[in-house]
Amino acid sequence: MKKLVLVILSLIFTCSFSFAQTGWFTQSNTATKYLISVDMFDANTGWIVGFDGKMLKTTNGGTNWVLLTYPTTSSLLSVHFTDANTGWITGYSTLIKTTNGGANWFTQESGTSNVLETISFVNANTGWMAGFTGTIIKTTNGGTNWFIQPSGTTKELWKIQFVSADTGWAVGTTGTIIKTTNGGVNWIAQVSGVISEIVSCYFINNSTGWVAGYYGKIFKTTNGGTNWVTQVSGITLDFNDVYMVDANTGWLVGPSGIIFKTTNGGTNWINQPSGSASILCAVSFVNASTGWVVGGTGTAGTILKTTSGGAIVNIENNGTEVPGEYSLSQNYPNPFNPVTKINFDIAKSGKSGFVSIIIYDALGREIETLVNEVQSAGSYSVDFNASNLSGGVYFYRMQSAGFTDVKKLVLLK
C-alpha cells in the first residue's frame, strides 16, 4: 500500500512553557481497519465508510460515531450524500442507497460487474460513479436506473467530480485525466504530464481545480484542464486526497499522518502536524475551520478533526506556582475583536489530567476546540482568534477531572 514515514513533532520549552498542539485531535470509533471515505453534510452530520463493510455516522460533529448496519463485509470505498437523508455508498460488490440518513439501505443495480470506487452527484437525481477499467456509469433518476458511459479509457479511475450537470472530471492510473462538458456523453483526455497515479481531484468551478497523486505530485489548472501547472509539495510520498474550500484554502492528506495546507491556492503547501502516524485516506471540510480526515493503521480506523483549519494552538504556562483548585477565568478583553485570551488553572492532583476547552455558538453548536490534551497542574492561557466568525454571543466550556465551567464571550464586528 502507501509508503510510511515517521512524522516528528518538536516541542519547545522555555521558562514560560509553550505547549504546541497539533491543531487536529482524534475522535474515537469502532473500526478495526482502514476508513476510506468521509462525507460531511454540515458541522454536525456526516458519514464514513471503510474496510470490512464499516459504515459510521455522526450527528454531533463526531463526538459520537455510530456504527450503521448493512449485511456486507465487503470493503466500502466511497460515500456521498446530497442532503441529510439521501446518499449512496459503493465498493466491492456493493452499491446501496438510503433516503433516511442511513437508518435503512437498499441495493441498486449498477449494470456493471466492475468495482466502483468513486461517486459524484450534482443533485438528488443526477450522478455518476467510476472505477475499474475506465468504467463510468450515470443516473438521472436517483439510481433507479444506471447506464454505462464510454470513457475512452481502460485505466482505473480513482476519483470523479462534477461541478454541474454538464462539466466533470475523472482521474486515475498512469496520469489519467479525462473531462466532459456534456454530462458524460463524451470524455476528452487531458495531458497531466506524468505517468504515475493520480488519485484525487477537486474543482471549485468550471475553470479552477487541483489533482493530486503519487510521489507528492500536485497540479493546478485555471482553464478547465487545458493546462496543468505543477505545484511544489516538498515531499515524494503519495497523496491520497485533496480538498479545497475555496480558491485559496485547501488540504492534502497521505501516509504517516501527513496533512498539508495551502492558503494561497497551492503556491505554497505547508505541513500541518497531525499527531498521527496513520495512513490518511480522505478529507472533508464544511468551512475553512472545521474538517475531518480519515484513514487507519490496518488494525484500527483513524478519525481526526480540526476546528481551527488545522492551525496549531499555543498554550502558555503562566508560572511555576501550582494552583490549589481548578478554575476558568473570564476572557480578556471582552467584548473583543478578533483575538481574546482565556486563562485557566489545573489543580495539583498528583498526576496530569485531560483538559478540553471548546467554543460554542449561541445555539450550542461546537465552533472550535482550543484545548484537547493531557496537561500537568499549573496556570495556563490560550488565545482565541475569531477572525473567521460573525459577530455575536459565544460560549466556552472547560472540562477536566470532573470540573466543568462555562462562560460567555462577545465578539464585536
* Number of separate strands: 37
Note the total helix count. 0
First-last Cα distance: 49 Å
Q: Give the amount of beta strand, in percent.
A: over 45%
Please state the average pLDDT score.
90
Tally of separate domains: 2
| Fourth CATH level, the homologous superfamily of the largest domain | YVTN repeat-like/Quinoprotein amine dehydrogenase
The computed structural class is mainly beta
Tertiary shape = globular
How would you describe this structure in keywords?
Methylamine Dehydrogenase, Chain H; 2 domains; mainly beta; five-stranded antiparallel beta sheet
Structure description:
The chain has a 5-stranded antiparallel β-sheet, with no helix packed on it. A 4-stranded antiparallel β-sheet has the order 2-29-28-27, with no helix packed on it. The protein has 413 residues and is mostly beta strands. Mean pLDDT is 90; it is low at 1-20. It is built from no helices and 37 strands. The protein folds into 2 domains: 25-306, 7 Propeller (Methylamine Dehydrogenase, Chain H); 317-411, Immunoglobulin-like. Strand 27 and strand 28 form a beta hairpin. The chain has strands spanning 18-20, 25-26, 35-40, 46-50, 55-58, 66-67, 76-81, 87-91, 94-98, 106-107, 116-121, 127-131, 136-139, 147-149, 157-162, 168-172, 177-180, 188-190, 198-203, 209-213, 218-221, 229-231, 241-244, 250-253, 259-262, 270-271, 279-285, 291-296, 301-306, 314-317, 327-328, 339-346, 353-361, 366-375, 378-385, 392-400, 403-411.
